[in-house]
Amino acid sequence: MAINQKPRLKDSALRRFKLVILVTLLGFLLFMILMETNLFQNFGPWFSDNIREDPYAGFGRFDSNDVLKLPKQTELSVRLEKRNRLPLRNLDLYPNLAKDHIPIVLYVHNRPQYLRVVIDSLSKVTGISETLLIVSHDGYFEEMDKLVQNIRFCSVKQIFAPYSPHLFPNSFPGVSPTDCKGKHYPMITTNCRGNPDQYGNHRLPKIVSLKHHWWWMMNTVWDGLEETRGLSGHILFIEEDHFILPNAYRNLQLLVTLKPKKCPECHAVNLAPSDVKSRGEGNNFLVAERMGNIGYAFNRSVWKKIHKKAKEFCFFDEYNWDITMWATVFPSFGSPVYSLRGPWTSAIHFGKCGLHQGQDEGDVCIDNGLLNIDVKDIDEVVNINSEWPVEVFRGQPGYGAGFRGWGGWGDERDRQLCLNFAQMYRSMPNVSRL
Ligand SMILES: *[C@@H]1O[C@H](CO)[C@@H](O)[C@H](O)[C@H]1NC(C)=O
Ligand SMILES: *[C@@H]1O[C@H](CO)[C@@H](O)[C@H](O)[C@H]1NC(C)=O
């Protein structure tokens, strides 16, 4: 109706209209001047896409011991952090942990069909009921949560990384509307936040979440959790795609007792060879080799050495936690970092069938929840002999001194968050402890 009506402007109305236009133009001019002189800095909070909006406002030094600023938490993040303080599960079934038990930390993301297999394998591990299983979640996923809640075969502690990028749908450390995207071209001034890595690429929250989670979990387990922060002995670490054989825990206990005598220069023990494709040599010797990333265990003195290298870990432009350890942290110890293991594996990495390029026929993989691992007699019982000699595998291929990382970890905010994880249980002992 209104469309057909010709506007009949009276003189006074026309004058008022001109005045509005003039005021608007003047306002716009003033705005441009202010922008030019950067006066608008002070009005940061009014502009949702202002690049100065800083999750770490006031935190300027990387090596600061006394200033700690963590990103503002989402509601979900706060709720999960509260759950981290809940008592152990299954206390009714296992009121006491065995003396000198070796806690097992299982860190997971979101592959329920894998986790189901891993939990099932753990349920068949001899001695599992003597120890504590800590499951650390990167993000919140209901099915993953349920699977862990249903575990009854041992004492369980469930924790969630409260600063996982997966818990921040709209802000750092998740995806933020002000993030720079893709390749960075220095010549173009872009109104975005973030530093590109050495190859010019900006951070991807889904990718950086793995290294963040690993580092948060390490700091939390050793220095934060009431249940473990007083322990000086070994802790075992496994992942959601590691099948654990029935003899794993007893082998682990034996390796830990043998280590001081058999391999004093070893920093860790491993349940699997560092070559992920190998199931072991099957010979009558123990092996000391480069520390692997499947089923590794070390004690608090080694953790202290690692923690001292927080800067090296957090500043190396490499998004994989394990490559970061091999390429910067371990070499900075000054001597080779060996790990002791048996000649047969007790943990097996598996993947989805046909997913990986060039997957060999013998690869362990899972389809429709079924895994093609057959557990042999030798995997059922301790298969390490304390009389065996130790073979040291020297000069294994690794990351040389010139290696600068594969990138993906160039954003200063990630580096600061990472350093904050190393500080959070030390600078605010009464506030942040779980
Ligand atoms: C922890 O392990 C390291 C490396 O194997 C060893 O030198 C150290 O004595 C161990 N510490 C304790 C408290 O057992
Ligand atoms: C932290 O707790 C300890 C012991 O409970 C206390 O002595 C200390 O003053 C507390 N520190 C702060 C900053 O509240």
TrEMBL record:
A Gene Ontology molecular function term for this protein is: metal ion binding
Give the record's keywords alphabetically: Disulfide bond, Glycoprotein, Glycosyltransferase, Golgi apparatus, Manganese, Membrane, Metal-binding, Signal-anchor, Transferase, Transmembrane, Transmembrane helix
Q: Which cysteines are joined by disulfide bonds?
A: C180-C192, C263-C266, C314-C418
* Entry EC number(s): 2.4.1.143
Q: Which cofactor does it need?
A: Mn(2+)
Annotated Gene3D superfamilies: Spore Coat Polysaccharide Biosynthesis Protein SpsA, Chain A (3.90.550.10)
Which one Pfam family would you cite for this protein? MGAT2
Which residue ranges traverse the bilayer? Answer: 20-40
Please name the SUPFAM superfamilies in this protein's record. Nucleotide-diphospho-sugar transferases
What is one term from the GO cellular component aspect held by the record?
Answer: Golgi membrane
Catalyzed reactions: an N(4)-{beta-D-GlcNAc-(1->2)-alpha-D-Man-(1->3)-[alpha-D-Man-(1->6)]-beta-D-Man-(1->4)-beta-D-GlcNAc-(1->4)-beta-D-GlcNAc}-L-asparaginyl-[protein] + UDP-N-acetyl-alpha-D-glucosamine = N(4)-{beta-D-GlcNAc-(1->2)-alpha-D-Man-(1->3)-[beta-D-GlcNAc-(1->2)-alpha-D-Man-(1->6)]-beta-D-Man-(1->4)-beta-D-GlcNAc-(1->4)-beta-D-GlcNAc}-L-asparaginyl-[protein] + UDP + H(+)
What GO biological process terms are annotated to this protein in UniProt? oligosaccharide biosynthetic process; protein N-linked glycosylation
What is the top-level taxon of the source organism? Answer: Eukaryota
- InterPro entries to which the protein is assigned, alphabetical: GlcNAc_II (IPR007754), Nucleotide-diphossugar_trans (IPR029044)
| Residues reported in the UniProt entry to bind substrate | D138
Where is this protein chiefly located?
Golgi
What does the sequence similarity comment in the record state about its family? Belongs to the glycosyltransferase 16 (GT16) protein family.
Give the protein's recorded name. Answer: Alpha-1,6-mannosyl-glycoprotein 2-beta-N-acetylglucosaminyltransferase
